[in-house]
Amino acid sequence: MRHYPLTPELAAFVARTLSFTSPDSSFKGQRDSYNRMCRAFTAPRPDNLRISELQLAGVPVRAYCPARPMPAQGWPCLLYLHGGGWVVGDLDSHDFITAYLAAQLQVLVVAVDYRLAPEHPFPAAVDDCLAVWRALQAGASPFALDPRRQLVIGDSAGGNLAAALCLALRDAGQSLPAAQVLLYPGLGGDTDLPSRQQCADAPLLGRDDVEDYLALYLPAPHRQSPYARPLLATDFSGLPAAFIALAQFDPLRDDGALYHQRLLAAGGHSQLYPGLGLVHGCLRARGLAAEVDALYSALLGYLRRALE
């Protein structure tokens, strides 16, 4: 493994994360060890939230609503799509960030428990996310929403799903999020991108991991679908403004950078956060490493402006 110059704090986070790796390589083993790792990095929820579990369009979701009076125009809303390579992760795995965003921003956050591969390959996850978004737009939730202040946000595979959701809604001529927030997203870039080579054995996500997850998620007949690999889209116009956060030591780094460039070339708005010194999956290191806290500061700043 080549050397990646992480700070001592981030290196300690990586070591602790890896300590949960299971010798059981079955999907159940992978999911169990991933969930144990997630619990270890999940702080108690803030007190100023009302949490509810419900279904929208038949898809399980968790809603985090601030315990304050609803704004006159309805709740600003973040639709959160979790990462995990489309194979692991659930509502609990990303409670560390969904509860935090709801409390910090005092907005409604709706997290989607979309179906996972390989039991449910593409397009199941995309279909679930679209179904939840459309249900929210149709007023099928118990929450009154501010129609002008609704965003989609996702990390890793969730960033892929967020971009796919925006493409699919635009193509269908339907209501779009005000912004798409993609955190170290995997967007289906070519295997010969520089970051695939430079970060082939990067901490927490290597090039082989990327290919393994994609193989489980994406059956061969769908390999050229832009809703599975958004970088394959031929038209990037008319999409929501974007905030795209990269991680420097991540084989997926160039996916986000390319998507940013294509949005700008199509006349769109996009803000790129270079994520110097960061690794894939570092969102869990909030409060443990200054470079991760800097990412959160930029993220919260963008979300506050986008929700104004």
TrEMBL record:
Alpha/beta hydrolase fold-3 domain: residues covered: 78-283
One protein family per Pfam: Abhydrolase_3
PROSITE patterns the record matches: LIPASE_GDXG_HIS
A GO term, aspect molecular function: hydrolase activity
Lineage top rank: taxon: Bacteria
Sorted UniProt keywords: Hydrolase
Family in the record: Belongs to the 'GDXG' lipolytic enzyme family.
Protein name from the UniProt record: Putative triacylglycerol lipase
Organism annotation: Pseudomonas chlororaphis
Upper classification of the organism: Bacteria, Pseudomonadati, Pseudomonadota, Gammaproteobacteria, Pseudomonadales
